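Dear V.,

Thank you for sending over the compound details. I've combined the ligand you provided, calcium ion, with the protein sequence from our construct and run the structure prediction for the complex. I'm sharing the raw inputs here so there's no ambiguity about protonation or stereochemistry in the SMILES, which I know was a concern on your side last time.
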Amino acid sequence: MNHSRSTYVGVRVEANGAHGVHFNGGVHSLSDALIRDNGLDQLRVDPDRATHLGGTPEHPFAAGTTYVRNTVILGGRSGVTVSRGGQLALRHCFIGGAEVGALAEAGAALHLYGSVLADCRQLELHCESALARLDANAYWPGRLRWLEATFPPDQFAAYQEASGQDRVSVVAAPVSLGRGFRLAAPTITWQDRLAAPGPQSELDLPFGEPVWRTPDPAAPDTSQAGTLRFDFESVNPWSRIYPVPEKAPDGQPLAATATLSDERAVSGRQAVKLAVDLPAGGPPNWLIKLFSMHLEACSRPVRMVRFQLHGDGSGTRVALRLRDADGESFNGPAFSLDWQGWRQVTWDLAETPPRVPPTARGNGRQDVPPLEVILDITPAAGGRFVLYADDLELLLEEP
Ligand SMILES: [Ca+2]
Ligand SMILES: [Ca+2]
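Below is the predicted structure of the protein with calcium ion bound, written out as structure tokens.
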């Protein structure tokens, strides 16, 4: 289609003998779509100056500017291809099972963010264009070609350095959160957000089984789809500290950190270590609010929270709380750190319904994503308080 403008929402494009979706010039938007098992490229963008319509190379429509969002693309020769002079932006897509996941020819503009490129047959990314911009993606197993160089999965850091792209992206296997190619893992972090790349809303389309994927005995267990797990090995979801009062009696900020530590762990080698120096001279007890990141992957309300907590036997009071996208609090059980060593803390919201203090914007429902998980801790002043936590799990309600 030359110089056309088009918008597609919720379409399914499959089993064509040639390309699946092919744009020549124009301006196009495609979202919440499924494109799979077409013979050649699943999505292809070529520039076209439409000379027969009087078009010029400078015309804004010549580049075939295409925006693709929340779309699943499976199989074929390439997942997406953009040729010289073309412009393609993808966000929150899942591309898998093609020969090459994403192909940008020299002089093409490919913008790829928050997406997953997985289980392709040759390369997840083949980028011949220095104009490409990529970040917040997940690759698996992560065979990437940038300009003249090919990087196997164990050279991802070298790829990042050579390309200057994908600074917060990761090489990790996708773990399904259930339907619609929404993922529970891997997660990437930026600002205060912890998010899983890939589609951000479940597609209401008849997918059938993902036929392109061969079983991998080393693949992560997805039998508990609907669970978000954080093992505190590579990312720290529990990292934000808000003390009350905000400052020590001398007017200085409180010395407080919540960082990954290898001093103790339940799983793997690391756990989060909260360490706070609590000067005397203020209140007898401080309130230390330990907030998780904004958990974007928490796409449905939480029905159970579990984590491992290392008690110090101090009797310090700890209360568990969730906070939804509206800023509404869901108060859970409170307990005292009257034990020493690791212990699992479990909050089943069906057994122990949250107490929900009324707020101006609150509606009594968990509006997600994102969700925050909070520990409200009240240690005594005049010393150093240290706490470890590991293996945070959030079980989500059924779709
Ligand atoms: Ca751990
Ligand atoms: Ca709410």
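A first observation: The pocket of calcium ion (ligand 1) is lined by residues 231-233, 265, 267-268, 270-271, 390 (CB under 6 Å).

Warm regards,
I. M.
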